[in-house]
Amino acid sequence: MDNPFRILVVANQREQTRLLSTSLELLEEDFRVTEVRSGEEADLELKLGREFDLIITEHYLGGMTGIELIKRAYRAQSEIKAIVTTPDQYACEKELGDTQVEAILQKPLDAGDFANAVRTALFGEIVEEDVPGDDGEIVHHHTETGTGRLVSRMDEEFGPIPEFDLGAMKVLLEPQVYLMGTLGIAFVNRNGEAMLEMGSFPEDLRFSELSIFIARNLNNSATIATYIGPVPSTTMHYYDGVNYDIFAISVGVHFFIALVFPGNSQSELGSVMRFRRNAVWTAIDLIGLERAMGYTADVEQISEQRNRLIEEGEEAERAEEQALTGTVTPPEGDEFVSPNGEPLGALAEARAREAARLAAEQAAAEAPRPDLDIDVFTFEEDDEDEAPLELDLDGLDLDDLDLDEDLSGFWEEAADEIGDIREDALSMEEAMELGLFAEDEE
Fold first, then answer.
1. 222-229: which pairs have CB atoms within 8 A and are 24 or more residues apart?
2. Distance, CA of 105 to CA of 416 (rounded, Å)
3. Which of 165, 186, 174 minimizes the C-alpha distance to 291?
4. pLDDT, tens digit, for every residue of 225-277?
5. Are 80 and 52 in contact (CB under 8 A)?
6. Which residues, in sequence order, are CB contacts of 300 under 8 Å at separation 6+?
7. Final residue belonging to a domain, choices 340, 366, 392
8. C-alpha dihedral sign at 69, 72, 73, 74
9. What is the pLDDT of residues 11-40, one digit of tens each?
10. Which of 11, 252, 274, 357: disulfide with 17, CB 3.0–4.6 Å?
11. Longest dimension (CA), the chain
12. Whether residue 242 is found in the same domain as residue 318
């Protein structure tokens, strides 16, 4: 773009300015964004003569409201356009009165609504049309009136966000909420818009905003993948926190799946990896392999990669199961082999080795302990196997043990200790004089 659009973002909390700016980044346009933290600071930018094409402001800014700022902006620059975000749409509309804005967006922010509002404000009304792709297949495009170009640079690199059967995707993913024990599972597009949410997403997680930041990270990963090989990678990001853990797994280049667990759920990595290997590829099939992976993808290589990953995963699962049941054990050396004698792959061997260790620990814990033979310690007349214990008391000479001397010494020492205690003790009369003992308690 020869003359990039200049956008002024106004929010009194840093996390909100970062959210709005990140949402703009996801549009992949050459925007020039200025961030300020108050209406007064934004008003100063306007008074200094700095021109903007669009102002995006929160309604409540702690001082001057966003509505008052918009009215001042209109007086300073008649061509400027405005979008306002608010937790209370009724109050916002009441304060606006006759003042017109491009959009009023309800908080928490919805990524799709935000993207459409910005695009409409800057590029004009969005028109949808179906056009034939390179292979003759009809592709759904979003274009802008007056420009005729694709909305996003991501569209130019990977193609537009494809449409698919949301109902079938829900059938695939919803059971995983219970099978994996997640709090919630979301299917999100590259703009950060949650197309499906299953399970329970806690309010304090603010997932509608969080998904925008995750989308930016995965979009960057999709671009990085084009540098390191011809096959787009299936990226997984893990975010661990005190309250929640999140696994984000790319589904091609246009979508990702977010799995939300309670905090400290690192132990779920194994089940997430299996989910990634199985369910994610099924999701890609629902979308269509070529459309999910983008225009530049080599479908043949992707299919080969997929088959290889599935085979490795199945081998690992078999090895794990066999190690747990004891049908795969290390030979004389330290290398695990399959029942047909073939060495296992690295992944399968690691899984088998860990499973064998756990199986050994479990077997040791469950091994029966030897019963205590009580008969050894009893004297039963009818026990023919055990001879009775015989003690020769007649031959015991007590004089040899010097018991008299030892016992006399013990009692003499005890008497001395009692005497020492009595020397330090108070008499009853002394205790009464000190008030430690009342006369009526005798």
1. 222/158, 222/190, 222/250, 222/253, 222/294, 223/157, 226/157, 226/296
2. 93
3. 165
4. 767 665 555 688 999 989 999 999 999 888 999 999 999 888 888 888 888 87
5. yes
6. none
7. 366
8. positive
9. 988 888 888 888 888 787 888 999 999 999
10. 11
11. 124
12. no
How far is the C-alpha of 245 from the C-alpha of 345, rounded, in Å? 30
Residues 17 and 46 in one domain: yes
Q: Does residue 316 share a domain with residue 265? A: no
Q: What is the pLDDT of residues 177-210, one digit of tens each?
A: 988 899 999 999 988 889 999 999 998 898 888 8
> Are 5 and 33 within 8 A, CB to CB?
no
Phi, psi for 418 (deg, rounded to 5): -65, -40
48 with 11: CB under 8 angstroms?
no
- For residue 253, which amino acid is it? V
- For residue 198 the two structure tokens come to 């299953």
Give me the domain span that covers residue 39.
Answer: 6-123
Note whether residue 208 is domain-resident: yes
The residue whose two tokens read 């099978």 is: 179
Give yes or no for a contact between 278 and 142, defined as CB atoms under 8 angstroms apart.
no
What is the secondary structure of 120-174 as a DSSP string?
A: HHHH-SEEEEEEE-TTS-EEEEEEETTT-SBS-HHHHHH-SPPP--HHHHHHHHH
Phi/psi region, residue 250 (left: phi>0; alpha: psi -120 to 50; beta: rest), is beta
Would you state the torsion angle of the CA atoms of residues 310, 315, 320, 324, taken in this order, to the nearest 10 degrees? Answer: 130
- What is the Cα–Cα distance from 72 to 75, expressed in whole angstroms? 5
Q: Could you tell me the two tokens for 54?
A: 């669009």
Cα–Cα distance measured from residue 328 to residue 352, given in angstroms and rounded to the nearest whole number: 8
Is the domain of 20 the same as that of 114? Answer: yes
Does the pTM surpass 0.90? The reply is no
Strand ranges, E, within 207-332: 236-240, 244-251, 255-262
Separation CA 305–CA 40 (nearest Å) = 56
Using one digit for the tens of pLDDT, what is the confidence trace for 296-338? 555 566 666 666 656 665 665 565 555 555 555 554 445 555 5
Give me the sign of the Cα torsion angle 324, 326, 331, 337.
negative
Pairing of strands 103-106, 54-58: unpaired
Does 171 fall in a domain? Answer: yes
Q: What H or E segment, with its residue span, contains residue 81?
A: strand 81-86
Give the number of other CB atoms < 10 A from CB of residue 157.
Answer: 16
CA 268 to CA 435: how far, in whole Å? Answer: 70
Same domain? 286 vs 206: yes
Place of tokens 């040899």: 400
3-state secondary structure of 430: helix
Cα–Cα dist 168/186, whole Å: 14
**Range list of β-strands (E), 253-344:** 255-262
* Whether residues 91 and 191 fall in one domain: no
